[in-house]
Write a structure and sequence with these properties.
315 residues; alpha/beta; 2 domains
């Protein structure tokens, strides 16, 4: 796999492979391991208080001298504190999600920070570009965790984003191997972001029960829930069934949101409660059969990519 493009140049990485900043799974161990292998590791600030984020940043700096960044959900109530930690610690790459980056872009740019924003539609992509983002992550509804309400698939979304904006597009959602990387590049993306594949690695801070659930999942073992509230893709379990039933019974948005107030994500991903917890995972879980080290994941992806290219050239 020899790829040099705007994404590798922008982030100063060897491979255009970015690890998703997943809540409760993306700590310093995972981020540093991905960066060490030539990709871009991201610390997931979505499940961290400001001081904990600072600790993870410092530990990541000690573990690697290669580029890494922070994934930052803009809906956080303590967003200003988190941004201040990022700037204080000298982070130069931030991936924003769940909100509009325009409100904070000047602060990031003043600190010399590269900003990529996660989008799920052309409209959002245009807004991100106009706000001054350096790249966008186009996330299809195949992705795990919270998704765009329009439910556009990755294959349909990426070419439209490439046609709509002049900044680099990174594809996300349903990608877990080298074949998916090649497919994303053919669609016009200049990089990929993988969440579920890296969530199920030895370096992930997620609970072993959660990782095993990903490895055991088949093609139809994830489901979309919380359509009235915060649309999310999760592994089917008793909680997911409860959430679907609440929607079918016509429960209000407030009642459905109340289902999440018991910290379901932490319960499922970090504490390993596969009955009451929310097991966020993408449809790519069906491609993941074992829990590997990050090093082995990269070796596998690179081999699969090279083989896919070779097979195409033979035809």
């Amino acid at each position: 796999m020899k790829i040099k493009n705007r994404v590798t140049d922008l982030f100063k990485i060897q491979y255009p492979i970015i690890q998703g900043g997943m809540v409760w799974a993306s700590g310093w161990k995972l981020a540093s391991a991905v960066s060490e292998e030539g990709g871009l590791g991201l610390i997931g600030a979505g499940s961290m208080k400001p001081q904990l984020l600072r600790e993870h940043i410092r530990k990541c700096k000690n573990a690697t001298n290669k580029p890494f960044g922070v994934n930052l959900p803009l809906v956080r109530e303590d967003i200003e504190e988190l941004i201040n930690v990022i700037i204080d610690e000298g982070i130069k790459i931030v991936f924003t999600s769940a909100g509009h980056p325009a409100k904070h872009i000047e602060k990031f740019k003043s600190a010399g920070i590269i900003v990529a924003h996660v989008v799920s539609s052309v409209k959002q992509a245009n807004k991100a570009g106009q706000a001054g983002c350096d790249a966008i992550v186009g996330e299809g509804v195949e992705a795990g965790g919270h998704n765009g309400k329009d439910e556009i698939t990755t294959v349909a979304l990426i070419p439209q984003l490439v046609d709509a904006v002049n900044i680099p597009v990174i594809a996300a959602g349903g990608i877990a191997d080298g074949r998916g990387v090649l497919a994303a590049l053919v669609l016009g993306a200049e990089g990929v972001q993988m969440g579920t594949r890296f969530a199920a690695t030895k370096e992930s801070s997620a609970h072993e029960v959660y990782k095993q659930k990903i490895a055991e999942a088949g093609d139809n073992d994830t489901v979309l829930i919380l359509r009235k509230a915060l649309l999310a893709r999760v592994i089917k379990n008793p909680f997911a069934i409860e959430a679907i039933k609440a929607e079918e019974e016509g429960k209000s948005r407030e009642e459905i949101l109340e289902l999440l107030n018991t910290k379901r994500e932490k319960l499922g991903i970090f504490e390993g409660d596969d009955v009451n917890g929310m097991l966020e995972a993408g449809q790519s879980a069906g491609l993941i059969k074992e829990i590997l080290t990050v090093k082995d994941v990269f070796a596998k992806i690179i081999s699969e990519y090279d083989k896919a290219v070779e097979n195409i050239c033979k035809k």
